[in-house]
């Protein structure tokens, strides 16, 4: 057993957290990689183990966080660092944008179909893969911009006049509904006799 992974003397504990927490963290990380369409079970297991191992290493430094929070944070770091390397984009305070556009680039470049084995692998990567990722990353642009939008009233057309009793008048409205009901009754009589 590797003591670096956080094995402790306490039964039912791993890296200072209950085993159930690590199982839940494992399931969440696995679900995330499934959402990125990593379908190879061996690769999926390796990627999840990598993230969980990093989360276990950081667990003693952050005692107030759950195993799932640690795993989610490490998962985001691992993926963002990999995107920064592949796309040659320095990770800055715009990590969220890099992570989001990188995930979109994965799908646009068809990583799940063609290069699943390259995901989170250290370089060097095949030139075709890098070219496809960078092209897809550029297509994931432009950066989002806020634009002001003033609310406008909805125009529902002529139906609003029929429902507005003040304009049409109560008796006129009652007459319209009576005619409508008589037409429906006549159709019913013709089809059921």
Would you give an account of this structure?
With about 190 residues, this protein is mainly alpha-helical. It has two domains: about 140 residues, no CATH class; about 35 residues, no CATH class. It contains nine helices and two strands. Strands 1-2 form a two-stranded antiparallel ribbon. Helix 1 runs parallel beside helix 3 and helix 2 packs across helix 3. The longest helix has 22 residues. The radius of gyration is 30 Å and the shape is elongated. The relative contact order is 0.08.
SSE order and pairing:
Elements: E1 13-14, E2 17-18, H1 19-35, H2 41-58, H3 67-87, H4 95-108, H5 111-114, H6 127-139, H7 159-163, H8 165-168, H9 170-191
Antiparallel strand pairs: 1-2
Helix pairs in contact: 1-2, 1-3, 2-3, 3-4, 4-6
Low-confidence stretches: none
Question: What is the residue-averaged pLDDT?
Answer: 78
Helix content: 55-70%
Shape: elongated
């Amino acid at each position: 057993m590797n003591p670096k992974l956080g094995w402790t003397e306490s039964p039912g504990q791993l890296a200072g957290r209950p085993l159930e927490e690590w199982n839940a963290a494992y399931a969440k990380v696995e679900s995330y990689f499934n959402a990125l369409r990593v379908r190879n079970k061996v690769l999926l297991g390796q990627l999840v183990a990598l993230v969980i191992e990093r989360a276990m290493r950081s667990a003693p430094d952050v005692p107030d966080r759950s195993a799932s929070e640690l795993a989610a944070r490490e998962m985001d770091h691992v993926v963002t660092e990999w995107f920064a390397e592949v796309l040659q984009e320095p990770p800055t305070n715009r990590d969220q944008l890099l992570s989001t556009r990188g995930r979109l680039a994965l799908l646009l470049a068809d990583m799940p179909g063609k290069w699943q084995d390259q995901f989170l692998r250290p370089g060097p990567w095949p030139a075709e893969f890098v070219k496809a990722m960078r092209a897809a990353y550029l297509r994931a642009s432009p950066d989002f911009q806020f634009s002001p939008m003033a609310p406008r009233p909805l125009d529902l057309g002529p139906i609003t006049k029929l429902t507005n009793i003040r304009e049409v008048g109560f008796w006129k409205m009652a007459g319209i509904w009576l005619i409508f009901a008589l037409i429906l009754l006549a159709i019913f009589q013709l089809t059921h006799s």
